[in-house]
């Protein structure tokens, strides 16, 4: 009887280990289209690195070592212009996280087409996440400072991906130096509404806003904390 119970417990434990391989796959797509200049590119790349290095984000990433988060980063702009910056990396140690941060800080801007193909970026992110089907949750984060003007409409892609099982969140970036605060708020509100209607996917999807690229690090930190919070709390 004892041997049978031990065997049953081992089988349950083994199943738990298999199921706990990955609690979240997080693909981060960064807008590098023509509206993003060299200074803004650097603020975006370093801002993501700063967010990943924030104490609260580091703590949440490392909170469940038996079920780590997997992270990848890609750039997007025109219909045929996407590039992987950080391939899928399992954040199973602080060294792995520091490696991702170092890669982001060392990445230099490449030549990119000026167009904004948001629908293509959505499809690109889903393709990357499709390879992470064993993860408990698969999330695509798209950062952008403008509406799509090339490629398939985001709304069409949103409908096509509705059964993919992924979540799409957005970090919407407003203009850096508007003439007045009223212009700043109106611009970010309109762009947020566009992303909310055309891009977001999943019941818990949300838009995070950055009031200019100088605010990107703060906004990204808040977004990562929110995304990682739910899975940590549910696991507890």
TrEMBL record:
InterPro entries: DUF1194, VWF_A, vWFA_dom_sf. It comes from the Bacteria. Residues 1-19 form the signal peptide. Keywords: Signal. The keyword Signal applies. Residues 25-228 form the VWFA domain. This is VWFA domain-containing protein. The lineage of its organism: Bacteria, Pseudomonadati, Pseudomonadota, Alphaproteobacteria, Rhodobacterales.
